[in-house]
Design brief:
Blueprint lengths: L1 E6 L4 E8 L3 E9 L1 H4 L7 H22 L9 E7 L3 H18 L3 E5 H7 L12 E6 L4 E8 L2 E7 L5 H11 L6 H9 L24 H13 L9 H30 L3 E5 L6 H13 L3 E4 L2 H4 L3 H13 L25
Parallel strand pairs: 1-4, 4-5, 6-9, 9-10
Antiparallel strand pairs: 1-2, 2-3, 6-7, 7-8
Helix pairs in contact: 2-3, 4-11, 5-6, 5-7, 6-8, 8-9
Bound molecules: 5'-O-[(R)-(carboxyoxy)(hydroxy)phosphoryl]adenosine and zinc ion.
Zinc ion binds next to α4.
């Protein structure tokens, strides 16, 4: 089965083609980051308008990449939620209309299930059951993935998501958007030990997270070290970035290892935009060795938003006989624990 995947939940237009036998055939992502950069975060109306502009030319490019036509498609999967309502509607509308015109099935899939399954696109994919650390701009969750579609949330952030914390703090420091990648770039040049940062909620039992205190702490540090009328010296910014990144990474590592222990599992998947963070990947890979566990993650471009993960997740569900009705219904809020189990 050859499936076109469409991702438009936030600020990336992602289009990909996945074949159930041959694997991923083509993948392109158009990032709107430059449009939202001045605002320090995604402006929903601008996001929807840009998806409208980009989506059809991008589908056309992806098909051209592998010399296929729309009539060579067997099904279309698109992100139904969670995400920005207007942005989701663009993908859902185009996917359903194209499927209707071609008389093929369309299926709306869960964005975070797409992230969770992205490592399946790599060689040596994880097998269920496993723990997933889902870390994106909107979510920080620990999920016990028992089977395809059977997900139990065992921990989550009580306030900001890890990616959101990176983005908001980057804005305070005058760095670009998306903040995680910028902070990680600056951190390479900084001294992670110059300033002290808390590791929130790590000294308490449980698997929940909280990042808003870290945000307040960093804001104060930036203010205290500001040069006259402006931001701190670039070297100080780099030191703050390094310390902050280490604090977020340590917090995620402590809770992930605890989740493996509590649930009695030995496989950990990290997924979502923050999973592309090199320090997080390195530290988790080393730390799991001590407890005889294995960590799995996708290449960085499959951690941040993309159409490949949506094409893959959709393809598996379509093969199991699922499809969406012609009346388009998006789900801007949609807990991953409410998904149907594939093959049940
Ligand atoms: O999964 P994603 O692309 O979009 C959402 O579903 O939210 O995640 C975006 C988030 C942003 O908050 C961004 O700052 C963060 O992922 N991010 C990173 C890195 N690259 C992107 N965070 C830390 N380190 C990175 N290298
Ligand atoms: Zn995402």
């Amino acid at each position: 089965m050859r499936v076109l995947g469409i991702e438009t939940s936030c600020d990336e237009t992602g289009i990909a083609l996945y074949d159930s036998k041959a694997g991923l055939l083509a993948n392109r992502v158009y990032s709107q980051a430059h449009i939202h950069s001045d605002f320090g975060g995604v402006v929903p109306e601008l996001a929807s308008r840009d998806h409208v502009n980009r989506i059809l030319p991008l589908i056309s490019l992806v098909l051209r990449d592998i010399s296929l036509k729309t009539t060579d498609l067997h099904a279309i999967s698109y992100t139904r939620g969670p995400g920005l309502a207007g942005a989701l509607m663009v993908g859902a509308g185009v996917a359903s209309s194209l499927a209707f015109a071609l008389n093929i099935p369309a299926l709306g899939v869960h964005h975070m299930e797409g992230h969770l399954l992205a490592p399946m696109l790599e060689e040596d994919p994880p097998k269920f059951p496993f723990i997933t650390l889902l870390v994106s701009g909107g979510h920080t969750q620990l999920v016990h993935a028992e089977a395809f579609g059977k997900y139990r949330i065992i921990g989550e952030s009580r306030d900001d998501a890890a990616g959101e914390a990176f983005d908001k703090i980057a804005q305070i420091m005058g760095l670009g958007y998306p903040g995680g990648a910028e902070i990680s770039r600056m951190a390479q040049f900084g001294d992670m030990n110059r300033f002290n940062f808390p590791r929130p909620m790590t000294d308490r039992p449980g698997l929940d997270f909280s990042f808003s205190g870290l945000k307040t702490h960093t804001k104060k540090l930036v203010l205290d070290n500001s040069q006259e009328g402006g931001l701190p010296h670039p070297n100080t910014i780099a030191d703050i970035c390094a310390g902050l990144q280490e604090a977020i990474v340590d917090t995620l590592v402590v809770k992930s290892l605890r989740a493996l222990r509590v649930e009695g599992l030995s496989k950990l998947v990290i997924a979502g935009g923050v999973a592309s963070n090199a320090r997080l990947r390195e530290k988790l890979s080393n730390m799991v060795l001590d407890i005889g566990a294995t960590v799995f993650y996708a290449r960085p471009e499959f951690c941040t938003d993309n159409g490949a993960m949506i094409a893959y997740a959709g393809c598996q569900r379509l093969l199991a006989g699922e499809s969406s009705s012609l009346s388009i219904s998006i789900k801007p809020r949609w807990p991953i624990s409410l998904l149907s189990v594939v093959g049940d």
